[in-house]
Amino acid sequence: MFDLTTLVNATGNFSEDNKLGEGGFGAVYNGVLKNGREIAVKRLSENSRQGQVEFRNEVAYIAKLQHRNLIKILGCCIQVDEMMLIYEFLPNRSLDCFIFDQEKGVSLDWPRRFTIINGVALGLLYLHRDSRLRIIHRDLKAENILLDNEMNPKISDFGLARSFGGNESEANTKRVVGTFGYMSPEYAINGFYSVKSDVFSFGVLVLEIVSGKRNRGFNHPDERLSLLGYAWTLSRDQKFMELVDPLIASTCNPVEVLRSIHVALLCVQNNPHDRPEMSSVVMMLSSESTLPQPKQPGFFDETSASEASSSSDSRHKKYSANEITISHLLPR
């Protein structure tokens, strides 16, 4: 536990100059402890969308997880009316700051991007299979991938995560939470989630890393395709290099790029049963074995994506008034 006075002093009384960003949970501040250690302090805001349930959720999960590709929590502070989480400080902030920025994107060449893809895959594999809690993240996106000094990725923000125990492997919720554009079709439309929901999000993330374009709001000049549909069409026509971010074209390894796109397309298939487990994803990324041909992805075009968004919005508005999540756990 951290003392409130310690955090007030470390952050300059939560000075705007030390503010790193703001999300659904609240603001995040950079701080320096008396021993010189830099920290990141996530401070729960009064009107937080995530609130106290997610605060405790994140503490419970991250405190029990240890992996080089997961953010490390140092402690928390629950004092007076304040609720805060304290993490290791990562100076390069989040992945979205680089891949969606024309200036910073150049510094993240293909070798670094491929390392990030593999690192996130290993982090997810740990959550799904190797951690004792067996966790589904439910909000994997570029903003939640933090980068350390050497640009190694660390998955962060476990406020929406859920764990499975015993024979549980799937669940259904009446309150759909997360970020549209990364949500799988079965989750966005029907509230159904499993490890394959994270696999879908991972596939979207890989296509964004390769292309430097966001899936959400992607605009194809000739056809009404989503980024997923565009990538699948290019792959089908053997034009996969057209997907690559021009900023990194000169540093690309075509074999690695092709394999990354191919694996990503397998991850974003419409039917969750067609998507690979993360253990297979890790192996496919590092091997030269023949891969199966991906079927047309979920949310292939703008129409299907916008319909799912409307469905997700209506479900959320209908069931989230009291911020209670109702889940039905299903056996394997």
UniProtKB/TrEMBL annotation:
Region (Disordered): 287-332
PROSITE patterns tied to this protein: PROTEIN_KINASE_ATP, PROTEIN_KINASE_DOM, PROTEIN_KINASE_ST
Binding annotation for ATP: 42
Catalytic activity: L-threonyl-[protein] + ATP = O-phospho-L-threonyl-[protein] + ADP + H(+); L-seryl-[protein] + ATP = O-phospho-L-seryl-[protein] + ADP + H(+)
Domain Protein kinase residue range list: 14-291
UniProt keyword terms in alphabetical order: ATP-binding, Disulfide bond, Glycoprotein, Kinase, Nucleotide-binding, Serine/threonine-protein kinase, Signal, Transferase
SUPFAM superfamilies (UniProt xref): Protein kinase-like (PK-like)
Enzyme class: transferase
Compositional bias per record (Low complexity), positions renumbered to this chain: 301-312
One Gene Ontology cellular component annotation held by this UniProt entry: plasma membrane
Molecular function GO terms recorded: ATP binding; protein serine/threonine kinase activity
EC number of this enzyme: 2.7.11.1
Any one of the GO BP annotations: immune response
Keyword Glycoprotein on entry: yes
CDD domains associated with the record: STKc_IRAK
Family to which this protein belongs: Belongs to the protein kinase superfamily.
Entry protein name: non-specific serine/threonine protein kinase
